[in-house]
TrEMBL record:
Keyword Nucleotide-binding: no
Species this chain originates from: Paenibacillus farraposensis
Signal peptide range: 1-21
First-listed, main subcellular location of the protein, grouped into a coarse class: secreted
Superkingdom of origin organism: Bacteria
Keywords from the named record: Secreted, Signal
Protein name, as recorded: Right-handed parallel beta-helix repeat-containing protein
């Protein structure tokens, strides 16, 4: 109400020719034609904000534009930060910040300082705001415990859209000591729900490209804390030195533990590749821990139709916090290949971590992960996994012939069936470890574990796996060999084709 009142008074004053100061600059809102405003490198903040008389700074536009308006940013380089603290509304529409036409609007952080955790574009406690079509780059620091972010959303709010932005070279390059590997952090996009019960909700992050990010112990694209209801779709996340996409809970981001989990979300149609901590100084003792897609304490979300390859880990669902669970996550119709440590990891990474509970891993194609040869296999079942369903997946081993590796006996109620396994050494050389017992050969594994009664051990006959084409040949034994339980398989395959044809379902990502 106060913001709308100030806008109304400013417009009224300008119509009367009186002028009204808002902050340190005048806001000639009523002079702009309709609900479109313009910013250009050759503009002036004393202009009217029209196409012929554009404003100069992004911040002036953010401070002046009312609900329902669109701020067009003309092509050029803007060595400025943008802090958005005004909201649109359901009745009047969002405030939209966008590039103009096909022009490239670059928000460049070269030489700008970083204070605490700070975004080049920052949205604080706002709703009905869209940010789209920008290139955001070169926001860097060499100071410990300062965190540069390309786009930073925090507090609470809803109906926020971040789309078609290119975010790169956001970096923290502080030199760490051998005794202290913390304090070197950055993000491409970070969404932190820091209030409770008010959440960040109805959030869409789509069509963005994030690359060449130096993240330290942080993530390329992260949703953390009280984030309830989101869609992360169609993004390219690649060539970064830590995790690609992360859904986080239990880090104390929200002030109430009951709300401190990213939840009720969809991660669909993203392509995530070449993300690794191999050369990251924050991980000197562990060079293979960057998940392409990671759920660390999140819940009630779907991860489907993604490609994850050439990362440390393809997809991981785990909890790093003892006594806390990642729960009710569905990993469905994804292609996961050539990742360094493993394809899919679940459970705590040691016995001091949390658990993975009531999750579903269904209709995925996993091909020759574990490329480092460490023996973690295609599915890495870690500490404390309970009541998870693993069905209709294709697992093709790397040169290690290891398909599943589970060294922990704290493993209860997990159901594996209707999967297809294939190892280069053949069925008799294929290797599984289950509840810390090793089995060589498919028959020995089934007999010893009771798993996979309806599963197959045979070549899946891909069209061209070496060329990245994991569609099935017409003679593939995976065709029509899956479980048809509609409660878990979903409606579409990775290509967007119907999952169920007649009464049959394929094993793997492709129908």
């Amino acid at each position: 109400m106060k913001k709308l009142g100030k806008i109304f008074l400013a417009g009224l004053a300008m119509v009367m020719g009186l002028g009204l100061a808002t902050g340190n600059v005048q806001s000639p809102i009523a002079s702009a034609a309709g609900t479109e405003y313009f910013v250009a490198t050759n503009g002036s903040d004393s202009n009217a904000g029209t196409s012929d008389a554009p404003w100069k700074t992004l911040q002036h536009a953010a401070d002046a534009a009312p609900a329902g308006s669109t701020v067009y940013v003309r092509g050029g380089v803007y060595n400025q930060k943008l802090k958005i603290t005004r909201s649109g509304s359901a009745s009047q529409g969002p405030i939209v910040f966008t590039n103009y036409g096909t022009e490239t609007a670059i928000i460049d952080g070269t030489g700008l300082s970083v204070s605490g955790t700070e975004g080049m574009i920052e949205l604080a406690n706002v709703s009905y705001v869209t940010v789209q079509g920008f290139e955001i780059r070169n926001f860097t620091t060499a100071s410990k415990n300062t965190v540069p972010v390309g786009i930073y959303v925090h507090g609470s709010g809803g109906f926020i859209k971040l789309s078609n932005n290119k975010i790169h070279d956001i970096k923290n390059t502080v030199t760490l000591t051998s005794k202290d590997l913390l304090g070197r952090d950055a993000h491409g996009i970070a969404v932190y729900g820091t209030k409770a019960p008010a959440s960040i909700h109805d959030l869409t992050i789509s069509g963005n490209e994030l690359y060449n990010l130096v993240l330290g112990s942080s993530e390329s694209l992260v949703l953390n804390g009280n984030v309830d209801g989101f869609a992360v779709t169609g993004n390219l996340v690649h060539d970064n030195d830590n995790i690609g996409i992360d859904l986080i809970g239990f880090e104390g981001t929200a002030p109430n533990t009951a709300y401190d989990q990213a939840r009720n979300g969809l991660v669909r149609g993203n392509r995530v590749y070449n993300n690794s901590v191999q050369n990251n100084p924050s991980y000197k003792s562990d060079g293979n821990s960057a998940g392409g897609i990671y759920v660390d304490g999140g819940k009630d979300s779907i991860i489907e139709q993604n490609y994850s390859y050439n990362n440390d880990i393809g997809i991981e669902i785990a909890s790093e916090h003892a006594g806390k669970a990642t729960s009710n996550i569905t990993i469905r119709s994804n292609v996961i290949y050539n990742n360094r440590l493993t394809g899919i990891a679940m459970g705590g990474y040691d016995d001091e971590r949390g658990s993975t509970v009531n999750c579903k891993i269904v209709n995925n194609t996993l091909y020759k992960n574990d490329i480092l040869g460490g023996g973690s296999g295609q599915l890495f079942v870690q500490y404390d996994t309970r009541s998870n369903v693993i069905k209709n997946n294709i697992f093709v081993a790397s040169s290690t012939d290891v398909l599943i590796y589970n060294e922990y006996s704290k493993n209860a109620g997990n159901v594996l069936d209707y999967n297809l396994y294939f190892a280069p050494g053949g069925s008799d050389e294929a290797n599984w470890t289950w509840k810390n017992k090793e089995y060589t050969g498919f028959s020995a594994y089934k007999k010893g574990t009771g798993n996979d009664a309806h599963s197959l051990s045979i070549n899946p006959e891909f069209v061209n796996a070496a060329g990245g084409n994991f569609h099935l040949q017409s003679s593939s034994p995976a065709i029509d060999a899956g479980d048809t339980d509609r409660a878990i398989i979903g409606t579409l395959d990775i290509d967007g084709k119907p999952r169920v044809k007649g009464a049959a379902v394929n094993i793997g990502a492709f129908e």
